[in-house]
């Protein structure tokens, strides 16, 4: 036997017993999105590296430290997607969606790849459920996206969540903000970490995202510098977003030091966090510069991405009552060669009648088959032995109380239907 193989560091096997949580999150996401008029999009898991270098930004952690990039066999520079927005925007442009009636409303669900430091809630392959609304610039749209994602978390059954919100201003106010920030940070240069000293010159907004303890006091004040230097348009826009949120009854917290780790954001940025633990379960914002940056027409846009693993973790720790995945309604048991052949026909008949049928045709003893039925949580069994083959009948047994009766083949379906109905009404 060879050396046993293990999954790469930072990845996970998501086993069948976990799937009820994944179904819960994915199905709820789909329901909310379709109801709100968003269409699903599936884009490639890998793209040209250049898309992320241009679209996410060379100075971001995602691209400078975390990207999985490689040359394929033809020498093309390829990268596993570290986030979903850049691919969706590329597709929007490439498929001419900017020529369709605007806004274009899209959602996705898929895995992202980042060379992150693996720890609780942080993986190298993780899933995001995302939403993007392209082609409309209006504060009500920002508020609507926030309201929809909060509705999603509420529908999941999660409590203790809040949305933190901030504005980093439009493109026109960016130079002034940058200058003011650089002035401010230069004055406090000595208290900044090495990363921030570097970021300061290239992209000072990113300093606000620093998690180093030593930078925190400077960063807290830097948030105020951004807000003080927003132009009137950006201030008015932000005020409107907050007013609409008030009107919609969505609770929020202002967080002046909130920025996103990606370069393309403008105006509103927001992040959904647990109130008590400060855990980030999703983040988003407006990105009016990205479509043009990637070669499309000047197009405003806003989006959000849910961190699926962290959301599932919360679903578990908050003890949300997650629905059971579909259980088979009926289990077919057989004993002997002739019975096995008859079982195949019975299974087919039940299946065509629309039941979820389970069986263990590879097993011999009735006892071991019933054990499988028990594990699956099935309450009703159709049992076929040699005697039933000859008498053209089956035994129908209620697995919860053991009550059983012999039924002629012709009445099998009708009896199964009646028994299941009785069970439901009990
Ligand atoms: P962080 O500051 O925690 O690294 P980020 O700013 O890199 O987060 P975003 O790019 O905004 O995160 O992604 C949105 C959401 O995706 C986060 O709120 C989080 O729930 C989730 N997420 C990000 N990175 C990871 C990861 N490595 N593993 C699992 N989930 C992640
Ligand atoms: Mg990160």
From TrEMBL:
BP-aspect Gene Ontology terms: histidyl-tRNA aminoacylation
UniProt keyword annotation of Cytoplasm present: yes
EC numbers, comma separated: 6.1.1.21
GO CC annotation terms, alphabetical: cytoplasm
PROSITE patterns reported for this sequence: AA_TRNA_LIGASE_II
UniProt entry keywords in alphabetical sequence: Aminoacyl-tRNA synthetase, ATP-binding, Cytoplasm, Ligase, Nucleotide-binding, Protein biosynthesis
Subcellular locations according to the entry: Cytoplasm
InterPro entries, sorted: aa-tRNA-synth_II, aa-tRNA-synth_II/BPL/LPL, Anticodon-bd, Anticodon-bd_dom_sf, His-tRNA-ligase, HisRS-like_core, HisRS/HisZ
Primary location recorded for the protein, binned into one broad class: cytoplasm
Pfam (any one): tRNA-synt_His
Binding of L-histidine, residues: 83-85, 114, 128, 132, 260, 264-265
Catalyzed reactions per annotation: tRNA(His) + L-histidine + ATP = L-histidyl-tRNA(His) + AMP + diphosphate + H(+)
Molecular function as annotated in GO: ATP binding; histidine-tRNA ligase activity
Aminoacyl-transfer RNA synthetases class-II family profile domain boundaries: 25-323
Signal peptide extent: none
Subunit structure and binding partners: Homodimer.
Name of the protein: Histidine--tRNA ligase
Organism phylogeny: Bacteria, Bacteria division Kazan-3B-28
Originating gene: hisS
């Amino acid at each position: 036997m060879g050396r046993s193989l293990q999954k790469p560091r930072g990845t996970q096997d998501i086993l069948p017993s976990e799937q009820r949580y994944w179904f819960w999150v994915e199905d709820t996401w789909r329901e909310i999105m379709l109801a709100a008029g968003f269409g699903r999009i599936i884009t490639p898991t890998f793209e040209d590296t250049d898309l992320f270098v241009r679209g996410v930004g060379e100075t971001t952690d995602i691209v400078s430290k975390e990207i999985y990039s490689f040359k394929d066999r033809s020498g093309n520079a390829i990268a596993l997607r570290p986030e979903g927005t850049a691919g969706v925007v590329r597709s929007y442009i490439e498929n001419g969606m900017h020529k369709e009636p605007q806004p274009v409303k899209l959602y996705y669900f898929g895995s992202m790849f980042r060379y992150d430091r693996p720890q609780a809630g942080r993986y190298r392959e993780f899933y995001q459920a995302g939403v993007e609304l392209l082609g409309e610039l209006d504060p009500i749209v920002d508020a609507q996206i926030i309201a929809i994602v909060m509705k999603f978390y509420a529908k999941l059954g999660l409590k203790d969540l809040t949305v933190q919100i901030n504005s980093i201003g439009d493109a026109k106010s960016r130079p002034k903000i940058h200058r003011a920030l650089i002035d401010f940070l230069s004055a406090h240069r000595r208290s900044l970490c090495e990363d921030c000293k570097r970021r300061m010159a290239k992209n000072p907004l990113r300093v606000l995202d620093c998690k180093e303890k030593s930078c925190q006091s400077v960063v807290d004040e830097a948030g105020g510098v951004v807000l003080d230097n927003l132009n009137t348009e950006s201030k008015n826009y932000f005020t409107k977003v907050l007013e609409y949120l008030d009107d919609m009854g969505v609770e929020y917290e202002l967080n002046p030091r909130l920025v996103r780790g990606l370069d393309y954001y403008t105006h509103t940025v927001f992040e959904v966090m647990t109130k008590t633990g400060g855990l980030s379960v999703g983040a988003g914002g407006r990105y009016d510069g990205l479509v043009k940056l990637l070669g499309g027409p000047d197009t405003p846009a806003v989006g959000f991405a849910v961190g699926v693993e962290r959301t599932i973790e919360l679903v578990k720790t908050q003890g949300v009552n997650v629905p059971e995945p579909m259980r088979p309604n009926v289990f077919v048991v057989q004993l002997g060669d002739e019975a096995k052949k008859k079982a195949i026909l019975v299974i087919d008949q039940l299946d065509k009648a629309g039941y979820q049928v389970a069986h263990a045709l590879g097993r011999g003893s009735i006892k071991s088959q019933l054990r499988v039925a028990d594990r699956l949580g099935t309450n009703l069994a159709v049992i076929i032995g040699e005697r039933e083959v000859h008498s053209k009948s089956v035994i129908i047994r209620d697995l919860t109380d053991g009550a059983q009766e012999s039924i002629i083949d012709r009445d099998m379906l009708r009896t199964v239907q009646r028994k299941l109905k009785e069970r439901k009404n009990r």
